Amino acid sequence: MDRTPKLTLDQELQAAVAIVRIGLDCIRDAACRTEAVGPHAAGLQALYDPANPDAGVLGAIADVIGTITVSVTEVDHEDIDRVTELLDEAQGHAQDSTGDRIRHALDLLAPLLLACETCGKRQPDVTVMDDPYAAAVDPDRAEYPQMTLCPACATDRFEDS
Length: 161
Hints:
Layout: H1 9-32, H2 37-47, H3 57-72, H4 80-109, E1 127-130, H5 132-137, E2 146-149, H6 151-159
Antiparallel strand pairs: 1-2
Helix pairs in contact: 1-2, 2-4, 3-4
């Protein structure tokens, strides 16, 4: 099988940038489709999750910068040390500095998140929904009591039916 790239380097990088932009558009659209705080916080956590900093978009960007930094050290040039120093700083800013600002914004948004009626946790995916138990037990009912639940507690309540 021929593994020779069919795209030029520029085309390959343009395609990669387009893919990243599509992903970022999806994050933005998911976060901003409502005025509720939860989706906004979830979108920010997709960029930088303080509980798992390496998992978000900024972690991926920092990882790419770090890999390029290590690879560029193989280049024989008098300014390579300065290049790697700048890239190390860029890597730190991408994840640490920008991430710290997002973490602070998430801390400020946390009290505005809905609290789950069952477990009491405030998290972005807590939503107001039809009572899963009542909906499962009496599917023909016109209206159901509303509950504020996280997905795990909603599943548990449904499974209790």
